[in-house]
UniProtKB/TrEMBL annotation, chain A:
Pfam families reported for this sequence: GatB_N (PF02934), GatB_Yqey (PF02637)
Protein name as catalogued: Aspartyl/glutamyl-tRNA(Asn/Gln) amidotransferase subunit B
Source species, domain of life: Bacteria
Natural source organism: Corallococcus exiguus
EC number(s) per entry: 6.3.5.-
SUPFAM superfamilies: GatB/YqeY motif (SSF89095), Glutamine synthetase/guanido kinase (SSF55931)
Annotated transmembrane regions: none
Annotated family: Belongs to the GatB/GatE family. GatB subfamily.
Listed GO biological process terms: glutaminyl-tRNAGln biosynthesis via transamidation; translation
Automatic annotation (TrEMBL), chain B:
Organism annotation: Corallococcus exiguus
PANTHER family assigned to the protein according to its UniProt record, in alphabetical order: GLUTAMYL-TRNA(GLN) AMIDOTRANSFERASE SUBUNIT A (PTHR11895:SF151), TRANSAMIDASE (PTHR11895)
Record-given protein name: Glutamyl-tRNA(Gln) amidotransferase subunit A
Organism phylogeny: Bacteria, Pseudomonadati, Myxococcota, Myxococcia, Myxococcales
Entries under PROSITE patterns matching the protein: AMIDASES (PS00571)
Protein role: Allows the formation of correctly charged Gln-tRNA(Gln) through the transamidation of misacylated Glu-tRNA(Gln) in organisms which lack glutaminyl-tRNA synthetase. The reaction takes place in the presence of glutamine and ATP through an activated gamma-phospho-Glu-tRNA(Gln).
Catalytic residues of the enzyme: K80 (charge relay system), S155 (charge relay system), S179 (acyl-ester intermediate)
Length: 481, 487
């Protein structure tokens, strides 16, 4: 059977770092990038005698996420210990949630080429992060170093059912989930710094089969691109194994970024026996009705709902609406600007075009914009009226972006206002036609392509400020059209 | 009254209050007594003479200045080496923690410091509190001051021996399955295991987290009550710490037992008990009856499963709690290990003693995939049944009376090669830990050979004051605490 006769089946496990100021079981800072072992205390160092105390903010964030994903938020959940030895695991166990997680059975709707698809979320649980082993710095001395700044940073693991059917769906799910978490203010969505991480469980089965094949777990997927590449590589690998009469072993595989392949990390035979048991140092985690209700009431409008509303309320195409709603600050700013303009689609074009370019180039967050929605509205109105050309408008926006000055002041200072005076434009048109008699004759003989040459010459003479409509109108008139 | 060190804590506190003696004098007396008898008793792993004297001077200065003082301000005490002491080496009597100097104090240590008690030193114990005789200490066994050829019990045997030998006026121990009460019974001292959650476990090196509980050990019931009141505090650093008020155990201490119903569990008076212990206990029960208590025959039917349940749960938790001793961050590290796995296996292989290894292996096995349901989970269910036994009985009675230890102090070396018979030493004490209840051991007599015998009182959750009151009613009729060990 060729690859096309197989169906890929994918489930994702997403680790999201919660945006708390302090760690999950102690008061140490969670700030990124500090000196090694700077943000540590006896508790997160796993010193003898220490005990964990739960950060309540972590619970609020998990409840918030659970509600946003339509999960059942459990009134009682249980902390467990996951026991294994590793140098960056200070206590020799990780405190996590095992058989009784805080949230269960929600869903996330994604778009696929064949329409909307609902992916089931099996569970959301809370846990502490481990530290980091550093092998490069002291390798020459035969040493490895351990940095425990991350140890005890709160993580939320969101586990999907194996409802995804190809790499594109997996990427879409991951993007939609990231947008939701960022919207909720519980995660920064930063894949590069590892605060949003993903493992994928991948299997293949003959098309039409109802029994899933043996799955492999893929780790180290820290970008959307790697997720797609790794799933596609792995699915093809598994099909090859099956085609050549072999069987797929259950194992954990790493995505090798440099070689573009997955390779075995550990097999089922040497899989850990984590010896889970309920954490005796922490009482069961209780979520009160009051906490659940207050989180429910403070839930923001989520990207998908916002997108639908942007389409109906502003008459935007789906493509525009999706981009504008992907990030909450951008959506909020768009809505603020929309109050000042008559044509939301034109506003959207500016957002998707020039503004996006500036934001990206300058690396400026929306929150740091220097100009106001009213100023942008004024600029659009100016362009609409023809006072400046669309091109000049871009220059004005660039200046507003950098300085926050009023568009009218910038137009005046740079002399960007269009010349719409008939007499002035006519004089230039006449001058150009007089200087290019030969070209005029060619045009009249039927070589219509010369027309663009005349427009260009007029605009050049007017330093780009000629009102394009007027220039065209006069040229055509003079050329006897 | 021959010497300063023979005073009870409250007697010394009275003399300190009347300025008859100073804390420095009391602390020096304690240090001299240690110098004199500890070479024989071997209760101390470490004596902190400068620290204790500095603290005693500070107490005297506060008293002179008229500053507020705690009830036991200036009274020197000792600490089981399981309590972390900032700047003072803490090993839990294990090689694996040799050289470990904690950067912080356990909450109870902080409370004692704040109350102005000079901390004389760190007391010997079974390694990581695993044992019933002090012989599993990685350093040396402690000897019973009543007979130096015998054990003082364990795991808080160092604390019990130091108190009994008049080296300190009181001490703190911890009790996971009887480790305060059993050595108290074997040394003619009073030991209280508080309700689980009553005293903070923060900074107490964990053995079995759901069972461990620190508590006071002293020569009299009054001292025990006074020391208990200093450490019974809600602690936000311990998530299992109960948010209840500190009890007043001293006000009603002399109220007697008239009208109280005391349960005598038939399962605790079954076979296996030493005849002298059994006889003394029966006499003690009659005495309590004469004092006005009503004895009620009660049953705790799941008692026979307690020992197995305890060893499964305690070992499971211990196997996890002791995983942090891996040689990576503190304590001892194997010198010649090549590679990570060797570092782990050699560090742990060299650092842990036989009893600790035995329990780590037992716990690892009980928790491992395929055995969890059969062992750990089953044990948790039985634990619930044991708890329910007590809940039912406490609907009928105010407290339960039983022996503390089935036998008096046994010879050093007598049980070291027979772990199972050693485990049986805790058979009367450990159901109380499984149920999270308060338990107390009070001296109730001596054998023909002059070895102490203890009586155990078990109570409802947070009912320590009543246990102390019953113990005091009994103590008042005797002079056991005036009898000094012959060391």
């Amino acid at each position: 059977m060729p690859l096309s006769d197989f169906q890929t089946v994918i489930g994702l496990e997403v680790h999201a770092q919660l945006l708390t100021q302090s760690k999950i079981f102690c008061g140490c800072s969670t700030a990124f990038g500090a000196e090694p072992n700077h943000h540590t205390c006896p508790v997160c160092l796993g010193m003898p005698g220490v005990l964990p105390v739960l950060n309540q903010r972590v619970v609020e964030y998990a409840v918030r996420t659970g509600l946003a994903l339509g999960c059942t938020v459990k009134a009682t959940s249980v902390w467990s210990r996951k026991n294994y030895f590793y140098p960056d695991l200070p206590k020799g166990y990780q405190i996590t949630q095992y058989d009784q997680p805080i949230c269960e059975w929600g869903e996330l709707v994604i778009d696929t080429p064949s329409g909307e698809k609902t992916v089931r979320v099996r569970r959301i649980h809370l846990e502490e992060d481990a530290g980091k082993s550093v092998h490069d710095a002291a390798a020459s001395a035969g040493q490895s170093l351990v940095d425990l700044n991350r140890a005890g940073v709160p993580l939320m693991e969101i586990v999907s059912e194996p409802d995804l059917r190809d790499a594109d769906e997996a990427v879409e799910y991951l993007k939609v989930l990231r947008d939701v978490l960022v919207y909720l203010g519980v995660n920064d969505g930063n894949l590069e710094e590892g605060s949003f991480r993903c493992d994928a469980n991948v299997s293949v089965m003959p098309k039409g089969s109802t029994t899933y094949g043996q799955r492999c777990e893929l780790k180290n997927l820290n970008s959307f691109r790697f997720l797609k590449q790794a799933i596609e590589y792995e699915a093809a690998r598994q099909v090859d194994v099956l085609e050549s009469g072999g069987k797929v072993d259950q194992e954990t595989r790493l995505w090798d970024v440099n070689k573009g392949v997955t390779r075995s990390m550990r097999s089922k035979e040497d899989a850990h026996d984590y010896r889970y048991f309920p954490e005796p140092d922490l009482p069961p985690l209780l979520v009160s009705d009051a906490l659940r209700d207050s989180q429910r009431q403070s839930l923001p409008e989520l990207p998908r709902a916002k997108r639908t509303r942007f389409m109906s309320e502003y008459g935007l195409p789906a493509y525009d609406a999706r981009i504008l709603t992907a990030e909450r600050p951008l959506a909020d700013f768009f809505e603020a600007c929309a109050k000042h303009v008559s044509d939301a689609k034109k506003l959207s074009n500016w957002f998707l075009g020039e503004l996006s370019r500036l934001l990206k180039e300058e690396g400026t967050p929306i929150s740091a914009l220097r100009f106001t929605p009213a100023q942008l509205g004024e600029l659009l109105a100016t362009v609409e009226k023809g006072t400046v050309s669309a091109n000049a408008g871009k220059d004005v926006l660039g200046e507003m972006f950098r300085t926050g000055r009023q568009p009218a002041d910038i137009i005046a200072e740079k002399g960007l206002a269009q010349v719409s005076d008939v007499g002035a434009v006519e004089a230039v048109v006449d001058d150009i036609l007089a200087k290019n008699v030969g070209e005029v004759e060619k045009y009249k003989a039927g070589k219509k392509s010369v027309y663009g040459f005349f427009v260009g010459q007029v605009m050049k003479a007017m330093k780009g400020k000629g009102n394009p409509g007027l220039v065209n109108e006069l040229l055509k008139k003079k050329l006897g059209e | 009254m021959s010497s300063l060190t023979d005073l009870s804590m409250l007697e010394l506190a009275a003399k300190l209050a009347s300025r008859e003696v100073s804390s420095v004098e009391a602390t020096q007396a304690s240090l001299q007594r240690i110098a004199q008898v500890d070479p024989k008793v071997r209760a101390f792993l470490r004596v902190d003479e400068p620290g204790a004297l500095k603290s005693a001077e500070a107490s005297d200065a506060r008293r002179k200045a008229g500053s507020p003082l705690s009830a036991l301000d200036g009274v020197p005490v000792g600490l089981k080496d399981i309590f972390l002491t900032e700047g003072v080496e803490t090993t839990c009597a294990s090689r694996v923690l040799e050289g470990f100097v904690p950067p912080y104090d356990a909450t109870v240590v902080r409370l004692l410091k704040e109350a102005g008690l000079p901390l004389v030193g760190k007391l010997n114990m079974d390694e990581f509190a695993m044992g019933s005789s002090n012989e599993s200490s990685a350093y040396f066994p402690t000897h019973n001051p009543w007979d130096l050829t015998r054990t003082p019990g364990g795991s808080s045997g160092g604390s019990a021996a130091a108190v009994a030998a008049r080296e300190v006026f009181g001490a703190l121990g911890t009790d996971t399955g009887g480790s305060i009460r059993q050595p108290a019974a074997l040394t003619n001292t009073v030991g209280l295991k508080p309700t689980y959650g009553r005293v903070s476990r923060y900074g107490v090196i964990a053995f079995a987290s759901s069972l461990d509980q620190p508590g006071p050990m002293a020569r009299t019931v009054g001292d025990t009550a006074a020391l208990f009141q200093l450490i019974a505090r809600h602690d936000p650093l311990d998530s299992t710490s109960a948010d209840v008020e500190t009890p007043d155990c001293l006000t009603g201490l002399e109220d007697g037992v008239r009208g109280l119903k005391l349960g005598v569990p038939r399962e605790y008076f079954a076979e296996g008990m030493d005849p002298e212990v059994a006889g003394t206990l029966r006499a003690s029960l009659e005495e309590l009856e004469k004092l006005g208590a009503t004895l009620v025959d009660v049953s705790l039917p799941h008692t026979k499963y307690a020992l197995a349940t305890y060893y499964l749960l305690a070992s499971s938790e211990a196997s996890s709690n002791l995983a942090r001793y891996d040689g990576i961050r503190y304590g001892q590290r194997a010198k010649d290990a090549r590679g990570l796995k060797e570092l782990y296996t050699q560090t742990r292989g060299q650092g842990f003693g036989a009893e600790v290894k035995r329990r780590i292996m037992l716990g690892t096995y009980a928790l491992s995939a395929g055995y969890y349901d059969a062992y750990y989970l089953r044990a948790q269910k039985v634990r619930t049944l044991i708890r329910e036994d007590f809940t039912k009985v406490f609907q009928q009675v105010d407290a339960i009376v039983s022996p503390t230890s089935p036998v008096p102090a046994f010879k050093l070396g007598a049980k070291v090669d027979d772990p199972l018979s050693m485990y049986l030493m805790d058979v009367y004490t450990l159901p109380c830990n499984l149920a999270g209840l308060p338990g107390l051991s009070v001296p109730c007599g001596f054998t023909q050979a002059g070895l102490p015998i203890g009586m155990q009182l078990l109570g409802r959750p947070f009912d320590e004051a009543r246990l102390l009151r019953i113990a005091r009613a009994f103590e008042r009729e005797h002079d056991f605490f005036r009898r000094a060990a012959p060391v």
